[in-house]
Amino acid sequence: MEMHQIRYFLAVCEDLNFTRAAEHCNVAQPSLTRAIKLLEEELGGVLFHRERNNTHLSELGRMVKPHLEQVYAQAEEAKRQAFDFAKLKKTTLKLGVMCTIQPDELVGLVSGLQARHPGIELEIVDANAADLENRLINGQLEVAIYCIPGQEPDERLHHMPLFREQFMIVVSPDHPLASRHVITPRDLTGERYLNRINCEFNGYAGPIWREHGFAGCDTVYRSERDDWILAMIAAGLGFGFMPKSCARHPMVVARPMVDPEIWRKVNLVTVRGRPYSPAVGALVREAMRAQWLGQPALALDLEKERQRMEELA
């Protein structure tokens, strides 16, 4: 059964005249008649009775008409949605965002996408980095923003760096470490630690600290939520370890960790070789256009450096 056969059938139902139906379908009448004949052969009976000037539906025609109307309407709706999707008139895009990235950092991306592509409905899914990577690989997300320090990048994924950010030691203003300009791992020995469960450096920063004189501390509180960690820090219950942009609370102070410095590099990640919707392309372009921590995306600097090296070669 071909879609044009259904369209011709419905046109004859509307006009009850083969000649007028052919004109409305912009097709020669013999072609319309042959299409109806083939449809009748497939359905196993006559669809119309043609009696001089009295063309009317047969019993079989009346029975199948609502079903074919539904098929045709659904096909037309599918075509319309596909057209809107291709033209970005109305499409939903799921963007995974690491839960330790502050919402303020996404404003430029989201506002730019809305201004230049108003047909994209952006759904932001927040989770820890490992969960986002699994969802991305499994096809539950098309694109994600995250970082996983301390491991080799998965070769199946394509990473476009957006920004780097230093990790800080965060304490209350009356904490003894608050008077220092910088803090080393050795300084944290014996202190009370407030653990961010979703921290990108969980299980990775500790060994680095120990290599630089850290002899251990007491973990007194754990939470998945940075705002709760900050509240506990402000209450003087211990220190936190977090990116500078996360340390936003009127009753805490953030000091850079040195010897060594620890930084996170956050990337826009997609799966290599996977066909993507136009919406993903639009989001990537906006991510490269947006400011991240007040600076252009790192990927732009890398591309400029690559072009410069090619010019020098």
TrEMBL record:
PANTHER family: HTH-TYPE TRANSCRIPTIONAL REGULATOR CYNR, TRANSCRIPTIONAL DUAL REGULATOR HCAR-RELATED. Residues 1-58 form the HTH lysR-type domain. Belongs to the LysR transcriptional regulatory family. Keywords: DNA-binding, Transcription, Transcription regulation. InterPro entries: LysR_HTH_N (IPR000847), LysR_subst-bd (IPR005119), WH-like_DNA-bd_sf (IPR036388), WH_DNA-bd_sf (IPR036390). Pfam families: HTH_1 (PF00126), LysR_substrate (PF03466). This is LysR family transcriptional regulator. GO terms for molecular function: DNA binding; DNA-binding transcription factor activity. The keyword Isomerase does not apply. The keyword Plastid does not apply. Signal peptide: none annotated. It comes from Microvirga vignae. GO terms for cellular component: protein-DNA complex.
